[in-house]
Amino acid sequence: MTLAAPALAQSDYPNRPIRLVCPYPAGGATDVLTRILADGLRERLGQPVVVENRSGAGGNIGVDAVAKSAPDGYVLGTAPVGNFVINPFLYPSMPYDPVRDLTAVSLAFEVPNVAVVSEKFVPARTMQDFLAWAKTKPGGVVYGTSGVGTSAHLCSELLFKRAGIACTHVPFRSAAQVIPAMLSGDVDFAIDNLASYAGVIGQGQMTALGMTTAERWPTMPGIPTMAEAGVPDFVVTAWSALIGPAGLPGPVQDRLVAAVKSVSEDEAIRQRFLRAGGQAMATTPAGARARMDRERPMWKEMVEISGARME
Hints:
The structure is a single chain. The protein is of the alpha/beta class. The protein has 2 domains: 16-110 and 237-306, Bordetella uptake gene, domain 1 (D-Maltodextrin-Binding Protein, domain 2), CATH 3.40.190.150; 112-211, Periplasmic binding protein-like II (D-Maltodextrin-Binding Protein, domain 2, 3-Layer(aba) Sandwich). Helices cover 42% and strands 21% of the residues. It is built from 11 helices and 10 strands. The strands form 2 sheets. Strands 1, 2, 3, 4, 7, 8, 9 and 10 form an 8-stranded mixed β-sheet that branches. Belongs to the UPF0065 (bug) family. It comes from Roseomonas populi.
């Protein structure tokens, strides 16, 4: 009987509400997309999926809470690329080991970065015009990001280092703070999640110079890819995975993998993701790990190029 009880609990999963930890603040891109995912999972799992924001330390606090939870499938989380393959190169010590302490159930959504400038303060409407202008700007370019070591920071440094352009990084707490600084002329440039900038692009307050995707974004087909804009080898998207603690039982993983796959194939939900600046995804746990392994060297190089370090 002692062996049958866990098996019965797993076959009955889920039979109570699930907590879905978002390791970033409410209102940001990861939070918005996590809540769309939660809605889709709720419909498929037949239980409430309650989003809990636990931000701080580059997402490490929230992800660590998932890593230290019971491996029963009732505490899950969303973990962006940074928490798997960027933060280990940024922080001298981590509260969790992303390989040993977490189950990457499936990649769930990804977000492209978009390069933008203020319509009012930067006299450039293409990436090549911007780079030419930046090379002649006294003191170099001032760019803003949502924090040290974010994909926005690493992408910006990579772009300017490759182009040989002097730059100054101004980190903010979120894109919501970067945008007013750009619109007032205090910051020249940003390359960050489309989800954060879609509104000001649509309103004509900012010019989008390029998207860090291999193909043009479905809801904004007028924005060129970085390759089309004259910046080759610059395909960088910020994906997020549905995670649980290590030791998540196979039947629970299978149930969640099937649910994420169903969410990604639901056209209404796919459109919600796209409108929010993201794209629904689904993989197996092995597929999620394979992408992490494939991208780890790229992100390590970008951290080294940036010189970023968190203490």
